Please model this.
Amino acid sequence: MGTFDSIETARLLMRRWRTSDRKPFAQLNDDPQTLVYFPQTLDRTASDALVDRIEANFDARGYGLWALEVKATGDFIGFTGLSPMPDDLPGAGGVEIGWRLARTAWHHGYATEAAQTAVSVAFAGLRLTELWSMTAVLNEPSQAVMRRIGMTEVARFDHPRVPDGHALRPHVTYHLARPLPRPRQGRSAVPRGTLGHCRPNTPAGILRVSDGLSAELRRRWPSMSRKKVLVLGGNFGGLTAALAVSHELHKDVEVQVISASDRFLFNPSLIWLPFGKRRPADITFPLAPTFERHGIEFVHAEATAIDLASQKVMATSGAHSYDYLVIATGYRNNFGAVPGLGPDGNAYTITTVQDAIRAGEGWRRFLENPGDIVVGATQGAGCFGAAYEYLFNVSYRLRKAGLAGKAKLTYVSAEPFLGHFGIGGLPHGESLLSMFLKKEHITAVLNTGMDRVEEGRLVLADGRHIGFSYAMIVPPFVGQEVVRSAGQIADEKGYVRVRDTYQTQDYDNVYAVGIAAAVDVPWQTAIPVGVPKTGFPTERMAHVAARNIAAQIRGEQPRSHQAFGDMPAVCVMDAGNNGVIILADKMLPPRKHGLLIPGPQAHALKLGFEKYFMWKARHGYVQLP
Model:
């Protein structure tokens, strides 16, 4: 058996230890947050002694706990590798796979990438027949890595070297077996060439783990062949799809989420942020802990390209393969639709956290020097609910500030009539909203496009203009550029064309949910209007997709179908201290039933729903309604 001093993965160099590693390793071991699942931290002397033992193990066995170096930066980030399983513990006498990474290297997929490589070396290079791993029961993030590399829990025990009563004394052991095929006489159990161009003790001292090796391992050893579901996006659609597919398959699936944002955002509450009723921290939470608790790998990175032919996604974190892909990338503001919109333009919007913060700064300046206000939604916009909510919240805030009647409030929309909402309207919706606007002394300008937004003036497509001291305008949305550039699956706006299973038209293993999915509407309007796909419809799409992916992984045909237009419409429109509950049997006409319920109970319901949904999402309870 040879030695394995250096190994390259896509992003990492796994190598023997250097003197320069000792200082950052000591800092890692002295950090209580990094060693939160260890009984105590290590001082420099103890940390150096551990490095000495690791190197002695390399000299004695030819393998060990490799120091991890990020190839792109040269940074040392910890270790991953193989070592003897401690005595008097489940698995004693075997080989343990383990890892310890600095906090700055968490949530990038490094532990899983290095651990999968260590498994390849153990089975195909060292010809081991099994691997073990152990950690504290409380250490769910580490257990998530164990599950992602195919290990299963086999025992729970109290660690004899952790004091009685200590929270970390209960431990868990995981196991991964490699059932070796019976070799033919005179032939090795590991066929010549299994390692491809990877050999121990090559002149360069480098073992490169090839795609061929991974494919061979998956073919020969089913314990390493769990299907991989890659989800792009971590908000309503991505979070729901990732957790739901894991739940459908009882976690017997590898799920990885790549998101450009590392926080979940409860978008419906952005309407309150400009008025100081919410802070960003109130309506967001970090994604990584939620996914880790459920054994899902989270990668904070931006997807840059989708290679449908080779089933890979390129991201700022590297290349990520998949068996099934869920596109839940959400939207971008299309500020170019109307000149004068955007962060450096002449009107505010509230469709992102930063946009809402800027709208709040403008609102505070407005209160110091009040004047007329315009709230609206451009041609092609679909998020009319947010425009209406902001309109009525502005009216409520004007009353609270003693400015009612002193500031003219105008609503400008591409909708053909009040209450169209981008879903064709609901019974009595137009009359109800007309009553609301009349009560609040709001002027409506409908069925119109916007030509441009000048400083202090909105110019309409027909040449009319409306002056303002403050304006909030919802722009159209478009899909993310990474989706638009993917080619045949996307339309000209960057939305993905899907069936009612939420599979793409051309690829059975590629799905799109939420705003990323293209939706056809059964009408045409004189001024283009979009369709709202946020919130409840996004969740429903994600569950349909998750059930169908689970069916495909089980070897069945997708059986869950629900066209966007056939989903129920459920919405709560807030108006400051009032509001409207909107219910219908279908999102799009023809419908049999539709109902609008006005009153202060709507405001209370929206407040309660925000708390409930944030709790549900933060804990990953997506199976709840």
Q: What stands out?
A: The domain at 6-181+195-224 is CATH 3.40.630.30 (Aminopeptidase). The first helix runs from residue 22 to 29. The longest strand covers residues 76-84.
